[in-house]
Specification:
The chain is an alpha+beta fold. 35% of the residues lie in helices and 23% in strands. The protein has 8 helices and 13 strands. The strands form 3 sheets. A 6-stranded mixed β-sheet has the order 5-4-6-3-1-13. 49% of the residues are buried. The protein binds alpha-D-galactopyranose (GLA). Alpha-D-galactopyranose binds next to helix 4.
């Protein structure tokens, strides 16, 4: 059994997912591939091909933690077992082409590909509910790896559609594909050169700040916050909440602009999103700013940091006459996670 799960880019809607807000991500061509073969016994042997490392795990995930990729395998096994899936002993080979720590969700791609491969090789009778799988993978991040992330990356990886982005409402979990009709325009990504680690970065601190603001305002979630609430909040909580309120509005602005074919307006909204992440959410770095500047000098219609922030990749929208820097890579909106070979194991 071979399963593939893509990484993701996020057109707009950053740090909104864990606030019941809105985002417009899309799955990309690059991703993680997990090949799984049954073996006797109740253990899983996994080999991370690109790293030349291997490890062995109990099907229950066995609760022990180390740093790095092994935690994702342990966590995925543990969460699948806790959710009642009957797994079987297997040998796994993991490979991929999403840069780790680059803000393109290599970790979500790994969790999702592991789930699909482990369920397929165990002969799971029916396809798992994909929203439930996204939640399960998010528990791997939160409870096993210590990155208190939302559902953005996993939903994008599981529900991606070629040539579409997804408007996700994280309050209702309604997912609406939005055609990305770009014509001669292009979406590209450029690495800032700075790796970010979600668990160690100030991502978790931002999430706590949002939670403090929510409690202070007595709301169910920051989705319900209004601009007039801001004066009741001390700094920097007022800035964080202003970002969330205005970013949700920019998401709907961008979806409307895409539907109207107004790509210039999409670019302006990307710039506004970046300015807000830099000035209000304070999640930029010097390397990210230099990268955004290089893209703007190359004539980008809009450019912004992507994902958890504090490093990682920068996304840009380019008009046909733009001259992007040489390290810009095209982003192709692609299909979501899938089992590539679905031969049933003989029992
Ligand atoms: C990371 C997290 C997501 C989301 C983004 C910020 O990618 O994994 O859940 O919070 O940051 O929008």
């Amino acid at each position: 059994m071979v399963a593939f799960a893509p990484g993701r880019a996020n057109l707009i809607g950053e740090h909104t997912d864990y606030n019941d807000g809105l985002s417009v991500p899309f799955a990309i061509e690059q991703g993680v591939r997990v090949a799984a073969e049954l073996r006797d016994g109740d253990r899983v042997n996994a080999r991370a091909i690109d790293r030349g490392e291997e490890d062995s795990f109990a099907l229950s995930g066995d609760g022990k933690r180390r740093d790095g990729w092994a935690d994702f395998v342990r966590g995925t096994l543990g969460e699948l077992t806790a959710a009642g899936y009957e797994l079987r002993g297997a040998v796994l080979e993991i490979s991929g082409d999403v840069p780790a720590g680059g803000g393109l969700s290599s970790s979500a791609a790994l969790e999702v590909a592991l789930c699909l491969a482990l369920l397929a090789v165990a002969g799971a009778p029916k396809p798992a509910d994909r929203v439930a799988l996204a939640r399960l993978c998010s528990r791997v991040e939160n409870d096993w790896v210590g990155a208190h992330t939302g559902l953005l990356d996993q939903l994008a990886s599981l529900f991606g559609e070629s040539e579409h982005a997804l408007r996700i409402d994280f309050r209702t979990l309604e997912i609406r594909p939005v055609p990305l009709r770009l014509g001669e325009w292009r979406l590209v990504t450029v690495p800032s050169g700075e790796r970010h680690s979600l668990a160690a970065s100030r991502y978790n601190e931002r999430r706590q700040e949002c939670e403090r603001a929510r409690i202070e305002l007595g709301l169910d979630s920051l989705r319900d916050a209004r601009l007039e609430d801001l004066e009741r909040l001390p700094g920097p909580l007022d800035r964080r909440v202003r970002h969330v309120i205005e970013e949700n509005a920019r998401v709907d602005g961008a979806v409307g602009a895409l539907e109207a074919g107004d790509l210039g307006q999409v670019g302006r909204l990307l710039d506004a999103s970046h300015a807000s992440l830099r000035d209000l959410y304070e999640s930029s770095t010097e390397a990210v700013e230099r990268t955004v500047m290089r893209l703007m000098q190359g004539g980008a219609a809009g450019a912004r940091m992507m994902g958890g922030g504090f490093g990682g990749h920068v996304l840009a929208l380019l008009a046909p006459d733009a001259r992007p820097p040489r390290d810009a890579r095209p982003l192709v909106p692609s299909a979501g996670a899938r089992v590539l070979s679905s031969q049933r194991p003989s029992r």
